[in-house]
């Protein structure tokens, strides 16, 4: 998870987030090179005392500074489109979970099971135990099996919300009366935190999201215990 004064992204926990981080680094390097070149040209133009009359009107240099930016934009656009389609691809999910946003908590329904669902409320500061994170912990976590395609159906009961978990590269708006869907694969076991990313009212910052990824056999044991409690 993120820590104070962190400059980069959280460690990627899904293949899509790994691709997003690679694309960010790729684009950042292009921006860095362009910024360095422009700064050098500005410095050279300001400090030089020489004037070359042939540079003032040159068809060749105008062609270069028209074609070169177009090539750079293509180098950015093609990987971007590839990741965009990867994020939209949902192939044969092993598990489908419906996440419903309320003011101000999330409710989850495991649609592949007959009666498996629960509400997820933030744990108040005075109730936290040592090792838990303020404003991020919930009384019920969304438990998923690792290395399995998970589809999340996202909607809202009242106002706009947004279901977002940065480490998984997932962010989907929850719109009342509309059912959106997103998908992810968790690469390794762990606990991943997110928050509502849409300004949804007075307690907007108090409806966190906690996704716990566990091995398949542990998920099956958890689901069985939840069904017995229900």
TrEMBL record:
Its main location: mitochondrion. Gene3D superfamilies: 1.10.287.90, Cupredoxins - blue copper proteins (2.60.40.420). It is a multi-pass membrane protein. Residues 92-225 form the Cytochrome oxidase subunit II copper A binding domain. It comes from the Eukaryota. The keyword Transport applies. Residues 1-91 form the Cytochrome oxidase subunit II transmembrane region profile domain. Its cofactor is Cu cation. Binds a copper A center. The chain crosses the membrane at residues 27-51, 63-85. The lineage of its organism: Eukaryota, Metazoa, Chordata, Craniata, Vertebrata. GO terms for cellular component: mitochondrial inner membrane. Pfam families: COX2 (PF00116), COX2_TM (PF02790). It catalyses: 4 Fe(II)-[cytochrome c] + O2 + 8 H(+)(in) = 4 Fe(III)-[cytochrome c] + 2 H2O + 4 H(+)(out). This is Cytochrome c oxidase subunit 2. Keywords: Copper, Electron transport, Magnesium, Membrane, Metal-binding, Mitochondrion, Mitochondrion inner membrane, Oxidoreductase, Respiratory chain, Translocase, Transmembrane, Transmembrane helix, Transport. GO terms for biological process: ATP synthesis coupled electron transport. Belongs to the cytochrome c oxidase subunit 2 family. Signal peptide: none annotated. CDD domains: CcO_II_C. It comes from Carcharhinus limbatus (Blacktip shark). One of its GO terms (molecular function) is copper ion binding. Component of the cytochrome c oxidase, the last enzyme in the mitochondrial electron transport chain which drives oxidative phosphorylation. The respiratory chain contains 3 multisubunit complexes succinate dehydrogenase (complex II, CII), ubiquinol-cytochrome c oxidoreductase (cytochrome b-c1 complex, complex III, CIII) and cytochrome c oxidase (complex IV, CIV), that cooperate to transfer electrons derived from NADH and succinate to molecular oxygen, creating an electrochemical gradient over the inner membrane that drives transmembrane transport and the ATP synthase. It is found in: Mitochondrion inner membrane.
């Amino acid at each position: 998870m993120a820590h104070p004064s962190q400059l980069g992204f959280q460690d990627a926990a899904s293949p899509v987030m790994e691709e997003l981080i690679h694309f960010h680094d790729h684009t950042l390097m292009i921006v860095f090179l362009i910024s360095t070149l422009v700064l050098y040209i500005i410095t050279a133009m300001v400090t030089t005392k020489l004037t070359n009359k042939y540079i003032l009107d040159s068809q060749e240099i105008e062609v270069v500074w028209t074609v070169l930016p177009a090539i750079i934009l293509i180098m950015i656009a093609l990987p971007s489109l590839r990741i965009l389609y990867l994020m939209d691809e949902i192939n044969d999910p092993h598990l489908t979970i419906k996440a419903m946003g309320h003011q101000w908590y999330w409710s989850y329904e495991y649609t592949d099971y007959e009666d498996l669902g629960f509400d997820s409320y933030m744990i108040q500061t005075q109730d936290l135990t040592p090792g838990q994170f303020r404003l991020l912990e919930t009384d019920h976590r969304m438990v998923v099996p690792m290395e399995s395609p998970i589809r999340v159906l996202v909607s809202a009961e009242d106002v706009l919300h947004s279901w977002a978990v940065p480490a998984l590269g997932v962010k989907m708006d929850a719109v009342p009366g509309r059912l959106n869907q997103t998908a992810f694969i968790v690469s390794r076991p762990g606990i991943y935190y997110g928050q509502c990313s849409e300004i949804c009212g007075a307690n907007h910052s108090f409806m966190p999201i906690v996704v716990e990824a566990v091995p398949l056999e542990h998920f099956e044991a958890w689901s069985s215990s939840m069904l017995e409690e229900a």
